[in-house]
Amino acid sequence: MPVQSSDANTLDRFIKEHKKILVLTGAGISTESGIPDYRSADVGLYARSKNRPVIYQQFIKNPEVRVRYWARNYVGWPRFSSMSPNYAHKFLKNLEDKNKIVHIITQNVDKLHTKAGSKNVLELHGTAYVVHCLECDYTIDRHKFQDVLSSLNPQVSIKELYSVRPDGDVELTPEEIGGFKVPECPKCQGNLLIPRIVFFGDNIPKKRVQRVNDFVEECDSLLVMGSSLFVYSGYRIVLGAKSANKPVAVVNIGPTRADDCVDFKIEARFGEILPLLSP
């Protein structure tokens, strides 16, 4: 469906009228970079697959889950980490340069805002680019960890045919996962190496939540881009802004959890609506 000029004008006016915009982005902002979201009708991960993201407690308690997770993540990493920022990421970087944005809070772990050059980015759900041990303070860059996994699993071939998921892994068959080896922590010899992301079922660190609350207090408006807000950590930000009587705008394809309480919502692809806005 083509972008309505009235929608572009409404969004343009919202951005012009506010000087301290807090931006919240979700998986929908990265789809035009080639990373699918979870909930889009027909094309989102949930529509195309019965598999769901790993639950934190499953990862902690079940060695088989950890092996499956890391096998899929290993195969998906080269493609996931090579993704580039799209027009929307660069658009927000430009707004930041103009001092229109106070902070960007992203639910994504893909680091595309940082790749676009944005400075004031809070990764609400962490980053896929760091691996750490849950039993000690050991950390390792994800690219270096890829080399470790590669040395342990020379039998695993990485193909470009797989469809990457929002958290960086791909779907593999049990046969493809069989025999995959995951290293122990080189510092404490534990077996709980995990990406520094907030898994489903895990909690966002309290200090990070407090920073979000501070950002909501600091801003004069909230712009949500590409999030369904069905995850409470994102929806809570909208509730906080509305309780402080700050205007909230949403650009997202498909329903959101906050449809009945935001000031306005626009359904459009970012690559189609953002170029229509004033420079």
From TrEMBL:
Gene Ontology CC, one term: mitochondrial matrix
Keywords: Metal-binding, NAD, Transferase, Zinc
Domain Deacetylase sirtuin-type: 1-279
Annotated catalytic residues: 125
Signal peptide positions (record): none
Domain of life of the source: Eukaryota
Annotated binding of Zn(2+), by residue: 133, 136, 185, 188
SUPFAM superfamilies: DHS-like NAD/FAD-binding domain
Gene Ontology MF, one: metal ion binding
Listed name of the protein: Deacetylase sirtuin-type domain-containing protein
Organism of provenance: Macrosiphum euphorbiae
